[in-house]
Amino acid sequence: MGTLPLFEEYPGLEGRIPWRPLGSFPTPVRRLERLGGHVGIREFYLKDDGLSSEYYGGNKVRKLEFLLAEAVERGAEGVLTVGGAGSNHVLATTIHAGRLGLKTVAVLFDQPPSSHVRRNLLLDLYFGAELIHASKRQTSSTIKRLIAERGNLHYIPVGGSTELGCLGFVNAGFELKRQVEEGLLPEPDYLFVAAGSMGTAAGLYLGCKLSGLKTRVVGVRVASRRLCSPERWAALINRTSAFLHQADPSIPRVKASAQSLLLLEGYVGRGYGWFTEEGVKAISLMRRLEGVSLEGTYTGKALAGTLDYVGKHGLKGKVILFWNTYNAVDLSKQAGEADYRRLPKPLQKYFEEPCQRLDPGEALNRP
Predict the structure, then answer these.
(1) Which tens digits make up the pLDDT trace of 330-357?
(2) Which of 138, 160, 264, 274 is deepest in the core (most CB within 10 A)?
(3) Neighbour tally for 206: CB within 10 Å
(4) If DSSP codes are grouped into helix, strand and coil, which group holds residue 161?
(5) 349: number of CA atoms within 13 Å, CB side?
(6) The pLDDT of residue 248 is above 50
(7) Which helix (H) or strand (E) holds 219?
(8) How far apart are CA 230 and CA 221, in angstroms?
C-alpha cells in the first residue's frame, strides 16, 4: 500500500503521527461528461471517495486511518463514538475498527426517518456495534458517563473531525495534486464538498494550500450552524495547521479566517437528515447520467448546491470538481441478515413508522 503523500512530502511526520492503512488510495477521478453536458459545465470532474475501501468506502476511511491507529497505539480495547441514527461515520467506524480487532460503542441521537437510516442501523447490528440511544440533550452526559465507566474505550468525536482526523484530507489534497500532475484532470478552479462536522472541508482546504493547488474549496452546509459554520471551519483549519507544525516545524503554518471561506447556505432544507426536492433531483441526475449513487443527507444536497452555485455565478467555463463522500460498496445482503428487533427499543421506530416523503431510496421491507 505504500506510504502517504503527506508523509513523503514531510518525512518528519512519519513515526510521529499514528497511521494505519485501511483504504484503497488514490481514489479515482473522472470527467462527468454526461452530467456536465446536461448542465452545461464543460470541465466537470468527480473525485470518488465512494471507492475508498472494498469493505466500506466514503470520506470517513481517510480519517479513520489516523483515528483508529491512535486507538490501537494507546492500547484501547474499543472505540466510543457518536452520531445520528443513520450515521455513516458510526457505520464506517464499526466496520473498520472491527478490522483492527476493536469493538465500537456508538451513542445515537434521532434524525428524520429514511430507508438510509434503516439500512445503516441494520448494518451497525450486523457488524457488531453496541448501540445506545440518547436524546441530543443527553448525548454529552451519556458520553461522559461511558468514558468514566469504560476506561478502555478511545473516544472519537462526531464525524471524526479532530485535528488528527483532518490529516486524512490534508493528505487527500496532496493526492489530488499528484493526480493533476499526472494529467488525470486539470487543476480545479473550484472543489465542492458536503460540509457537516467540517473535518473533510478543513483538511481539503489545508491540503490544497500546502500542496500548492490554487483550487478554491467550497463547502455546502448540510448540518446545523452550531456544527457547521465558517467560524468553526476556520478554527479547525488553524488548529490542524498548528498540530502539523508542532509535529514537524518544517511544515508552513496556514491561517484561515471565516471571511476567507466559502460555505454555501440555503441547501440544508428543514435541517440535517431532511431530504430536499433539489437534492433528490441531483441524486437522480447523477445516478441516471453517471451511474454514481448519492444520498439525501449529505451528497445529494452538496451536488444540488454545486449545480446551483456554478449556474448562478457564471462558473460553467471553470474547472469544477465534485468530491463524492458517500460509500459505494453494496452491503444490502448484510443488512438483510440483521433483525431490527435486536435494536434498542427507541431505535426500532425507524422500521415501524413511515420514511419521510422525499426518501429517494428503496425502503427495506419490514421484517
Answers:
(1) 999 999 999 999 999 999 999 999 999 9
(2) 160
(3) 25
(4) coil
(5) 10
(6) yes
(7) strand 216-221
(8) 10
* DSSP string for residues in 69-138: HHHHHTT-SEEEEEEETT-HHHHHHHHHHHHTT-EEEEEEE-----HHHHHHHHHHHHTT-EEEE--GGG
% of the chain exceeding 70 in pLDDT: 97
Among candidate residues 168, 180, 263, 181, the one with its CA nearest the CA of residue 222: 263
For residue 158, which phi and psi values (nearest 5 degrees)? -55, 130
Any idea which residue has 438510509 for its cell? 116
Percent helix, strand and coil across the chain, each rounded to 5? Answer: 45, 15, 40
Radius of gyration from C-alpha coordinates of the chain: 19
Q: Are 295 and 18 in contact (CB under 8 A)?
A: no
Write out the H or E segment, with its range, that includes residue 9: helix 5-9
Pinpoint the alpha helices (H) of 225-359.
230-247, 277-290, 299-312, 332-336, 349-352
Q: Which residue has the cell 458510526?
A: 90
Cell numbers standing for residue 5: 503523500
Whether 367 shows a pLDDT value over 60: the answer reads: no
Q: Looking at this protein, which amino acid is placed at residue 251?
A: I
Cβ(307)–Cβ(40) below 8 Å: no
Tens-digit pLDDT profile for residues 291-327: 999 999 999 999 999 999 999 999 999 999 999 999 9
DSSP conformation class of 364: P
Q: In sequence order, what are the beta bridge partners of 46?
A: 30, 322
Residue with grid cell 440544508, as numbered in its chain: 268
- With H, G, I as helix, E, B as strand and everything else as coil, classify residue 315: coil
Report how many helices (DSSP H) and strands (DSSP E) the chain contains, helices first: 13, 10
